[in-house]
Amino acid sequence: MSTIVYENAVQVAKSLLEAVRSIEEREAQSRAAAAKLSAVESAAREAESRRQAAHADCAAVNARLIEARRELEQVQKGHDEVYAAKVEAQGKLNVIRTQMAELRQNLGA
């Protein structure tokens, strides 16, 4: 069996102690990095969830806009029909007024 000199044993023990401290420090850094990564991943999931919710809201608004445009087209069509009828009626009324004016002139002459 070989003998280890005390100084060598102390040196080996110090070296082992430094190695253990270095490993512990790296493990602590690794745990801290894992915690940060977990927080970033959680924030990314939350952001994705908000993005999906916003996308769904936009799709719902878009659907309401499409329906509102359809309703507007129907109302506009109805308005156009009413306006055309009004113009036609005004035209007929103007013809009748003109005929009445001519009739009054003929009766008065």
Walk me through this protein's architecture.
There is one protein chain. With 109 residues, this protein is mainly α. Helices cover 94% and strands 0% of the residues. The protein has one helix spanning 6-108. The chain is rod-shaped and about 150 Å long.
Record keyword descriptors for this entry.
mainly alpha
- Major pleated sheet: none
Uncertain ranges: none
Question: Number of DSSP strands?
Answer: 0
Percent of residues in beta strands = under 5%
Mean pLDDT: 94
Write the H/E string, N to C: H
Please bin the fraction of helical residues.
Answer: over 70%
- Our count of helices gives 1
Through-space gap between termini: 154 Å
Which class of secondary structure composition applies to the elements?
mainly alpha
What is the C-alpha radius of gyration, as a whole number of Å? Answer: 46 Å
Net shape = rod-shaped
Quickly describe the structure.
The protein has 109 residues and is mostly helical. It has one helix at 6-108.
SSE blueprint:
Elements: H1 6-108
